[in-house]
Amino acid sequence: LKLGVLISGRGSNLQALIDACAAPGFPASVALVLSNRADAAGLERAGAAGIATAVVSHRDHAGKQAFEEAMSAALEAAGVELVCLAGFMRLLSPWFVERWRDRLINIHPSLLPAFPGLDTHARALEAGVRFHGCTVHLVRQDMDAGPILVQAAVPVRPDDTEESLADRVLEQEHRCYPLAVRLLAEGRARVVGERVLLDADMT
Ligand code: GRF
Predict the structure, then answer these.
(1) Are residues 2 and 96 in the same domain?
(2) Among 102, 153, 181, 186, which one has the highest count of C-beta atoms within 10 angstroms of its own C-beta?
(3) Which residue among 58, 61, 108, 132 is the active-site one?
(4) Are 73 and 137 in a shared domain?
(5) Does the structure's ipTM exceed the value 0.90?
(6) Rounded to whole angstroms, what are the CA distances from 45 to 21, 33, 37, 39, 107?
(7) CB of 136 within 8 A of CB of 177?
(8) CB 103 within 8 A of CB 144
(9) In the prediction, which pLDDT does 135 show?
(10) Residue 64 is part of which domain span?
(11) Both 37 and 52 in a single domain?
(12) Is 108 tagged catalytic?
């Protein structure tokens, strides 16, 4: 399965996908890394791995539609079959979401539907939840919503700071994203309407 990974920054989830794809027998490869920022550190990770990169900046396009058409064209030209959002910080329009419907996934640092949006770790601490985590989901028009593929929970410890909690969650993100890609690539996860059916549900 050919992946297109969309980033805006650090790219540690991109790195986890690159590493997973390098393992023998992994059923996917990264065909293109696309960033909306030329200074995204993740672009260097892609370069170091010999993966094609593209920068498509919203600033170079007259309006959201033109920006997203340029992204879509780059993804199509690279033969991308599944688009993975990995710290991509621009909201995508309904046009893009529908264009890639069921072929567009995101990783979010909370146990959705809890804490959509930004600052999830601070908000989890503030709410006093005992468990927090991450979610890989299919993208729908509402932000941080859509059929859930994979989740992992971590305990929240009494002495946690935003940083310590974020680190614990990030470790799980790096496990969950490759797993979600593998499940889709191997046909072990199937999108049926607004739910994802996993292997065991398919009998
Ligand atoms: C991750 O926490 C991801 O869940 C969120 O943005 C962060 C991106 O980190 N959507 P990185 O760029 O993958 O290191």
Answers:
(1) yes
(2) 181
(3) 108
(4) no
(5) yes
(6) 14, 10, 14, 12, 19
(7) yes
(8) no
(9) 98
(10) 1-100
(11) yes
(12) yes
